[in-house]
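Dear colleagues,

As part of the handover before I leave the project, I'm documenting each prediction I ran so the next person doesn't have to rerun anything. This entry is a single chain, and its sequence is reproduced below.
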Amino acid sequence: MYTEFYKLNGRPFQLSPDPRFFFGSRSHKKAMAYLSYGLSEREGFIVITGEVGAGKTTLVGHLLSRIDRQKIVHGHVVTTQLEADDALRMVASAFGIVYRGVDKASLLRAIEEFLIDARQMGKHVLLVVDEVQNMPKSALEELRMLSNFQLDGKPLFQCFLLGQPQFRRIIASEDMEQLRQRVIASCHLTPLDEDEVREYIEHRLSLTGWQGDPGFTDDSFRAIAAHTGGVPRRINNLCSRILLYGSLEELHRVDAEVVEQVARELAVEGTQHSSYRAASEVQGTVAAPKAEVRPSEPTPRPQSSFPAPAAHEETLLDLKERVRVLRGGR
């Protein structure tokens, strides 16, 4: 609805990862350089860590959107708690290799044959493992063992490991020494600083045809940075609701007061991450902060928490009524 009010050609702050909206902060540019370097080396593991919503999936998606699909074959999986043998089935599934009802020895042979065939066709095989912090060490060891497959002395397999900060502790443990020796680069994504928050918001707005409506004041950017801690997904969450609120109130200017109002309403709805909410409540305000094997596809958009009446007029009335109730009937 707000896209029509502000004459935007799309949703600038959707929550699902979209490589088209990649923003190169200092931290993200560094991570991108490491990933690009890794692809050029065509071996080993590259580890990218960051808080929930830091932009790990968008980062890799942006890189993969630029690769030559004729030369690189990639699979993308999201992990849960896996047993060691399940890790192999996960890899097989990502590349379309039959794994049901196949014993481990046969599965390893099938994966090796796939990797050799790909190399002989002049293709490089890359596996992206998301939420890697959920994998037990035995499953990580199976991934390491796959990196032993070679042809003519050259590795057949490369892996990007994306995870939350706790994975740094996991891989630093003594029994992960062999895996660490296969890591050719690692990078931790840090939150955006205050200046980058402003650049990030304006970047995403500009990609959807923003012409300065609504206008954001300097103090609004500072408030958004303070509320979100500079975490991209939290920024998306808060800014999306700011635009919705602005369209309901027919605002063409967003200041710090608007940001505070929207943050409070989000808190009432209980839609924010608990740690994000707690951190903001200390300041007296509130801010916004996988399980099956799947191929590399865009994450489905989350369903709206609002009803979807048939007509635009009904939608506007329902939303205004919801806002009125959240404010205590004012």
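The longest helix spans residues 104-120. Residues 271-320, 322-327 have pLDDT under 50 and may be disordered.

All the best with the project,
I.
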